[in-house]
Amino acid sequence: MRRSFLIAVRFLTRLPMPDPGPVSDPDLGRSAVFFPLVGLLLGLMVWALMVWSLSILPAEFSGPDPNRAAFGGHSPPYGLAAALVLVAWVGLTGGLHLDGLADTADAWIGGLGDRNRTLEIMQDPSSGPFGVMALVLVLLCKWAALSALMTTGAVMSLIWIPVLARAQLLILFLTTPSARPDGMGAVVKAHLPRTAAWAWLVVTLVASALFLGTEWPGLVVAAGVLFLLLRRSVMTRLGGFSGDTAGALVELSEALMLAAAVFFS
Predict the structure, then answer these.
(1) Cα of 27 vs its chain's centroid, Å
(2) Cα–Cα dist 31/11, whole Å
(3) Any idea where the domains of the chain sit in the sequence?
(4) What confidence tens digit (pLDDT) does each residue in 142-165 have?
C-alpha cells in the first residue's frame, strides 16, 4: 500500500517523494485507488497556504468583512493572495490536469465531431488557441472563487474540493470504457482493484460530508452534474474516456466546486 501511494503521489503531483522503482501496469492500476488521498494531501497544502496568506495580511485587512475599506478606500488585497495560492496550487500538480484540459478543448473544437480527428489532436503536445482560452477561463474562475472565499473566511472547502475532484477519476475508471485500448487510461482501468476503489469512494463521500456539513450537498451535486455531462460527451464523441479528458474533468470539477463553495458559503 505504501508503494502504491508513493506512485500515486509522484504521478499526480510534483512533490519530492522516494523513488518507488520501476512501475508496472498493475502497479499503476493499484495506485489509482489512492487518488482521493493524494487529493486530500493537496487540499491540506492549499488550505494551509490560504490560511497563511490570510494571516500575513496587514491588520487593517484582517477579518471576513469584504466591505472593509483601508488605505484610501481600497479593498483588501485578497486578489493578490488568491493569485499566489493558485500559482502554488498549479505548481504542486505540475499543471498535469491543465494540460489535459487544454488538449481536450483543442480536440473537441478542432475535431469537428470526428472521433479519429479528435484523438489525433489530443496526441499533439502543442496547445492551440482553444486550449489556451480554456486554460485562461478556468484559471480565472478559480482565482475569482479563491478571492471570494478569502473575503468570507470560508476556506475549509479547499481541503475537500481536490479530494472530490480526484474521487471522480475513480468513478470514471469504474463506469466508463477507455477510448484507446493502448492508452494509460486503459491500463489503469484494467488493473484497478474495483472493490477497493468503491470502498475509497464511500469513505471519501462520508468523510467529506462530515467535515463540510451544509456545503457538501451543493458541491457534490455540482460535481455530479458535471460528471454526467462530461461522460455523456466523451461517450458520444469517443466511445470512452482518455487521459486528457480525465484531466479536464478534474480541472472543471475543481473550478465548478470552488464556485459552488462561494455560493453556499
Answers:
(1) 22
(2) 9
(3) 2-264
(4) 999 999 998 887 788 999 999 999
Over residues 46-65, the pLDDT tens digits come to 999 998 887 776 655 544 55
> Using only C-alpha atoms, what is the Rg of the chain?
19
What are the CA-CA distances from residue 190 to residues 25, 52, 174 (Å)?
9, 42, 10
The helix/strand/coil state of 206 is helix
For residue 236, what are the contacts with CB-CB under 8 A and spacing of at least 6? none
* Mean of pLDDT over the chain: 89
C-alpha cell at 69: 475599506
- pTM for this prediction: 0.91
Cβ atoms of residues 149 and 264 within 8 Å: no
Distance of CA 186 to the CA centre of its chain: 20
CA-to-CA dists, residue 153 to 54, 86, 90, 203, angstroms: 9, 16, 22, 27
Burial of residue 67, with CB atoms counted within 10 A of its CB: 0-12 exposed, 13-18 middle, 19 or more buried:
exposed
Rounded distance, CA 44 to CA 35, Å?
A: 14
